[in-house]
Amino acid sequence: MARLRDLAKKHSPLTSGHRACSGCAFPQVARQVLLAAEEPVVVVVATGCMEVATTIFPYTAWCVPWLHCAFENAASTLSGVESAYRALKKRGVIDREIRFIAFGGDGGTYDIGLQALSGALERGHRMLYVCYDNQAYMNTGIQRSGATPTYAHTTTSPVGKVIPGKLERRKDLTEIVVAHDIPYVAQSTPAHWNDLVTKVQKALAVDGPSFINVLQPCRLGWNFEADMAIELARLAADTCVWPLYEVVNGEYRLTYRPREKKPVEQWLKLQGRFRHLFLPENRHLIDEIQAETDRKWEKLLKKCGLA
Fold it and tell me: Does 4-303 carry CATH code 3.40.50.970?
């Protein structure tokens, strides 16, 4: 179990002065993930908000060895780095333990990076892939992605007379990764720092690939007040829109169960991308989202042996 006092003693792996939006949660995700590591790490970051905001040439906010790659190939890039490390270690050129972490947004993970991620998992590289899931292509103009929730407004699923936002269901990437039968898969949020840090420590300890999907509220794309990111992440877990769980060698375990399961509209109403759902004629859409959330929650409880 992670201890806050131990984390506070460590040097921050991501400095202040980066250019993330005010209220953005990805710096907290990156810090929590990297502070959890006990061994030196090499980080690969796909093109996206995290890369653009932290490494505008000639500056960098990263205090660890870091590589930038294309939008779609963070997993395959890190696969090559990890393979080179194993080869050099076998030859005696490197004699210390190093861990490897990739960060990618949902656009570069759910969609155009899925093939690279799947290949890396299938090959069995010892690496942790962290998806910071802000539920759209935020860096390129807030276009819908496979991670965008149903009925969310984006620039490519605009609310109007024709459609009430995105019509398709959100892709369940965490379950897709579980199907690869890798040692460790989990979901978390930056609001639950102990949960996230502990999961990262578990992920880095396994001898093989691991994956953590982290919900990262986006102030611009979700359209909320700048001080609400952590509250929205917390509400996502309390409404069971984003359950916190882990899958260790195929065994499901719930890591957070809200004392009171809150209605999903408490999460929706704080975000401008769902404002249209609160018009009287769209009330049934909220009911539909609630029913789908309840269905998936009950399904997860059964997988965890809790229902």
Answer: yes
